[in-house]
Write a structure and sequence with these properties.
The chain is α+β, with helices and mostly antiparallel strands. The chain has five helices and 14 strands. A hairpin with a 3-residue loop joins strand 6 and strand 7.
């Protein structure tokens, strides 16, 4: 018989550490925080808005995958940003976001790492790993210019039965103890806010990201947008944030596509 999870307390905005210049709104239920923030950006909301939902009912991940979690079991939120950097640096924002989440969780999960471009995994050094966080960054055009909607979903308190796929996990499952979500949200927001400056120095960001990216050096299958699948070794991250893969047919530079770690033989 499956045991029901213990009652889950709501987020407490009064105790939340909010970065300077940002403002946080918590909603009980939202179809998609990314869609809601994008709509508000088009209507004139200023960067720094953070919309958090206790229950997202129609969220999307990369490649339009569905993203829904039990109420109050996760941290699901979107941040509205306007990076003051050249257009060539914008592709680094999803990678920076993954790096910021990894850095925020590293004290709780020592074996946390990144799978290119921005999946946050646990225990991936010797295998495929278990996904603890998904990220979706979208560019939105507004009358004041382009903005970025940074969507983050962290599995915090899900039980094994509540996880959507076998290769997912939650922070509490990995640590073996309950997680106080309000404090964790403050940590993640502080990390993202504090690391934004790396977009001004993408070479430093590239090196920092590569240090925690377990995709590099692995055999991967690259599922390209056209439907082709190419296998090779992930060699490097280039200056644009793209993954460089060595295949039997030569070097392949992947700016968009789904990368799957191949299990060691």
């Amino acid at each position: 018989m499956t045991q029901s999870p213990a009652p889950r307390p709501p987020l407490d905005p009064e105790r939340l550490a909010v970065p300077v210049g940002w403002r946080v709104e918590v909603q009980e239920e939202t179809p998609s925080t990314n869609a809601a923030v994008a709509e508000r950006a088009r209507a004139g909301d200023e960067p720094g808005l953070v919309l958090v939902t206790e229950h997202q009912t129609s969220g999307r991940g990369r490649l339009d995958r569905a993203w829904e979690t039990p109420a109050r079991s996760s941290l699901t939120f979107s941040v509205l940003l306007r990076p003051d950097v050249p257009a060539t640096s914008w592709p680094w924002l999803p990678l920076l976001t993954g790096y910021a989440v990894q850095a925020a969780l590293a004290d709780r999960l020592p074996d946390i790492a990144l799978k290119w471009p921005n999946d946050v995994l646990v225990d991936a050094a010797e295998g495929v790993g278990r996904k603890v966080c998904g990220i979706l960054v979208e560019r939105v055009e507004t009358p004041e210019g382009p903005v970025a909607v940074v969507g983050i979903g962290i599995n915090v308190d899900q039980t094994l039965d509540e996880l959507p796929v076998a290769l997912a996990t939650s922070v509490s499952l990995e640590t073996g103890e309950p997680v106080e979500r309000t404090g964790l949200l403050g940590q993640v927001l502080g990390s993202l806010h504090g690391l934004q400056g790396l977009l001004d120095d993408v070479e430093s960001l590239r090196r920092a990201y590569a240090d925690v990216c377990v995709t590099l050096g692995r055999t991967v299958d690259v599922h390209l947008p056209a439907g082709d699948v190419r296998r090779g070794e992930a060699l490097d991250i280039d200056a644009t944030g793209a993954l460089v893969v060595g295949t039997d047919d030569g070097t392949l530079t992947v700016a968009a596509g789904d990368v799957v770690h191949v299990r060691p033989a």
